[in-house]
Amino acid sequence: MVVEGEGTAAHIRGIVGARQLSALMVRHDGPGLIFLAGHLGLMEATGLLVWAARGTWWIIPAVFAHGIVIVHLFAPFHEAIHHTAFRSRWLNSALAWFAGLALMLPPLVFHYQHTDHHTYTQDIARDPQMIPMSERLGSYLLYATGIPYFAAILKALFTHPFGILSEAEQRAAPASAHAAIRREAWIFWGVYLGLAVASVWLGTWAVAVYWLIPRVVAEPVMRVIRMSEHAGCARSPNMLENSRTTLASTPVRWLAWNMPLHAAHHAAPLVPFHAIPALNRILLPHFGEVRQGYVDAVGFQVRNALAAVA
């Protein structure tokens, strides 16, 4: 039973302390530049593995590993959408566009939908990024393949240039933003068509081998991670209960820009990624759903889904 006021912003501010919370919200360019340099450096390293594995069966694990690093660009993309990756606004915007293009996620539409996601977390009628299908095993496994996800983003890429938005997108994005959403979609298509033309002109498969194929084959990893953030958590406005904290290993948390500590992020979305571990240490005893790594998190979700069938 949720006690009135429990899990609200005021309650969380009381737990952390207003002064300490304000200190945690301070943004810096340095940590974001370090994390981004590490992320891009790892992407270059896995890309070199793909290059070295050409013509051998090692190409399969190499492409998958490279893809995992690419799909984890969602972490800096997400931070940039919150304007917490960097202190400088232009750096956040540049990162959102770069990562958004790599992931086929237009930043403006995502911004509006993600705002609603934080406002109405786990509200099936109003949270546009909730994944209710994850609550049944067959649907969970289907979503984990990435097929429904790619169907949704491809539909958006083909309809947004013509000003056609889904009902959820229309609820999230004000009418005043629709023209900008159309422009954003046309810019995305301009970049993608430019890459296609350049590839044909140069007679190279580099774009497909080093970006598109790895990005697609590794997406199931990101779908499982995204479902682990909320699936099976309470359908409640209590921010201490409606998100899951996953105590992943340090390398995993680094690659995900500390987003496995997801309940702390939802508790205070304006705290930048580099301060999330400190916030998590304070709030951890108050979280309703904590798992010891993604194996534990996935196992819990699968058990929940099986129980729903029974």
What's the quick description here?
The protein is mainly alpha-helical and 310 residues long. It has helices at residues 9-16, 18-24, 30-52, 59-71, 74-81, 89-103, 107-119, 137-144, 147-159, 167-172, 178-202, 206-217, 219-230, 250-255, 262-267, 276-283, 294-309, and strands at 245-246, 290-291. The chain has a two-stranded parallel sheet.
Structural notes for this entry:
The protein is mainly alpha-helical and 310 residues long. The chain is built from 17 helices and two strands. It has a two-stranded parallel sheet with strand order 1-2. Helix 4 packs across helix 12 and helix 5 (74-81) crosses helix 6 (89-103). The longest helix has 25 residues, at 178-202. The protein is globular, with a radius of gyration of 20 Å. The two termini are 24 Å apart. The mean pLDDT is 95.
Write the SSE topology:
Blueprint: H1 9-16, H2 18-24, H3 30-52, H4 59-71, H5 74-81, H6 89-103, H7 107-119, H8 137-144, H9 147-159, H10 167-172, H11 178-202, H12 206-217, H13 219-230, E1 245-246, H14 250-255, H15 262-267, H16 276-283, E2 290-291, H17 294-309
Parallel strand pairs: 1-2
Helix pairs in contact: 3-4, 4-12, 5-6
Category by helix and strand content: mainly alpha
Number of helices: 17
Rg (CA only): 20 Å
Shape: globular
Number of strands: 2
Mean pLDDT reading: 95
Which residue ranges are poorly predicted, with pLDDT under 50 across at least 5 consecutive positions? none
Distance between the termini: 24 Å
- Spatial sequence of strands, sheet with the most strands: 1-2
Helix content: 55-70%
Query: Which percent range describes the beta-strand content?
Result: under 5%
**Biggest beta-sheet profile:** 2 strands, parallel
Query: Order of SSEs, N→C?
Result: HHHHHHHHHHHHHEHHHEH
